[in-house]
């Protein structure tokens, strides 16, 4: 991405007036650190020139950590960045799927980068992709996080998405296995050494929300998230749709930051048709699913990649990341309420 594109993208955000007080620029997709530290120093200067007094600008990086160095740590500290490290647990799990081009595992370099970030006290969260193998090893994962001083964990299931056209979790027993995994993980973490487990903690918050509060699902709201490609093409809704093909001759891009304002894109026929299809799926979810109050209509990208349509309901992602998680989180809430009642 050129610095001109960085500037143009940020200009579109600011001129729209749709941003809140807190605005996060998330450097994601592929391996962002491969762009080099010089690029991000310059990009930060570009962003700071465009920021206005009513914006609290933040930067986040999702990285495999293989390129992390003391210099990177100093940069992250200087801009107050939050860093997510993609690591799938101990070496025996991680190296099964996360490899270099020559086929060798990335674990040794990833764990070295994670330790540099940890020792430099950079705000850090680990992201682990769960497969059928890892669902059967909650103890190993928990012990690994604790031994590495990781206290913030997020889980992604192995999804059917983009180039990943199949999943080891597609079988009928996956939801039960995931519930068992989460239940065991929560039990292991009874002393709270891991302060934040994204799936469980976020779901508990949703369950505890006031009955009349509608869940805020950014993935189905236009312009809640803006996704920008290296050339300035942009989309909204799920980030994964940015590179997806809608058909042989079309995609889900709704404009280019060099030529299109967000207000122009909002009224475009492409966005109106896309939003209508997504909302049709949301309406079906609301009508058919008892978990809607903690979901808000699912993830359009998962619906698209699994079925080729947005006007649908249940996906692998929602069976596991919503329903299975909610079942375990509800039990946690009930046990907490029971404890409160005890003398």
What descriptors fit this protein?
343 residues; TIM Barrel; 2 domains; three-stranded antiparallel beta sheet; 13 helices; globular
- Radius of gyration based on Cα positions: 21 Å
Count of discrete domains: 2
Give a count of the beta strands, DSSP E runs of length 2 or more: 11
CATH topology name of the largest domain: TIM Barrel
Describe it.
With 343 residues, the protein is an alpha/beta fold. It has 2 domains: 3-207, TIM Barrel (Alpha-Beta Barrel), CATH 3.20.20; 218-327, no CATH class. 45% of the residues lie in helices and 14% in strands. The protein has 13 helices and 11 strands. The strands form 3 sheets. The protein has a 6-stranded parallel sheet. Strands 7-8-11 form a 3-stranded antiparallel sheet, with no helix packed on it. Strand 5, helix 8 (174-188) and strand 6 (196-197) form a beta-alpha-beta unit. Helix 9 (198-207) crosses helix 13 (316-341). The protein is globular, with a radius of gyration of 21 Å.
């Amino acid at each position: 991405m050129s610095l001109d594109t960085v500037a143009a993208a940020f200009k579109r955000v600011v001129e729209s007036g749709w941003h809140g007080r807190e605005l996060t620029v998330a450097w994601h997709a592929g391996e962002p650190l491969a762009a080099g530290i010089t690029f991000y120093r310059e990009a930060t200067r570009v962003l700071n020139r465009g920021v206005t007094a009513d914006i609290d600008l933040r930067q986040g990086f999702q990285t495999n950590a293989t390129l992390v160095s003391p210099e990177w740590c100093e940069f992250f500290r200087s801009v107050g960045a939050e860093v997510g490290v993609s690591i799938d647990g101990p070496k025996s799990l991680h190296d099964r799927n996360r490899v270099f081009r020559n086929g060798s595992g990335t674990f040794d370099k990833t764990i070295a980068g994670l330790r540099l970030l940890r020792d430099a006290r950079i705000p850090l969260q680990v992201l682990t992709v769960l497969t059928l193998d890892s669902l059967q090893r909650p103890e190993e994962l928990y012990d690994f996080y604790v031994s590495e001083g990781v206290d913030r964990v997020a889980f992604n299931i192995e999804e059917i998405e983009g180039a990943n056209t199949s999943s080891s979790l597609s079988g009928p027993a996956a939801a039960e296995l995931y519930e068992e995994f989460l239940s065991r993980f929560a039990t292991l973490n009874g002393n709270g050494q891991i302060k934040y487990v994204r799936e469980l903690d976020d779901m508990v918050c949703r369950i505890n929300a006031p009955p009349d509060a509608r869940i805020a699902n950014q993935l189905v709201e236009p312009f809640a998230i803006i996704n920008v490609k290296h050339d300035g093409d942009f989309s909204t809704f799920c980030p994964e749709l940015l590179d997806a093909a809608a058909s042989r001759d079309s995609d889900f891009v709704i404009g280019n930051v060099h030529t299109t304002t967000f207000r122009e894109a909002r009224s475009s026929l492409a966005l109106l048709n896309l939003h209508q299809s997504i909302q049709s799926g949301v309406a079906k979810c609301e009508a058919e699913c008892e978990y809607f109050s903690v979901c808000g209509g699912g993830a359009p990208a998962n619906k698209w990649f699994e079925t080729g349509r947005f006007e649908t309901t249940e996906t692998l992602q929602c069976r596991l990341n919503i329903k299975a998680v909610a079942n375990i989180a509800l039990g946690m809430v009930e046990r907490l309420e029971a404890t409160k009642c005890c003398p």
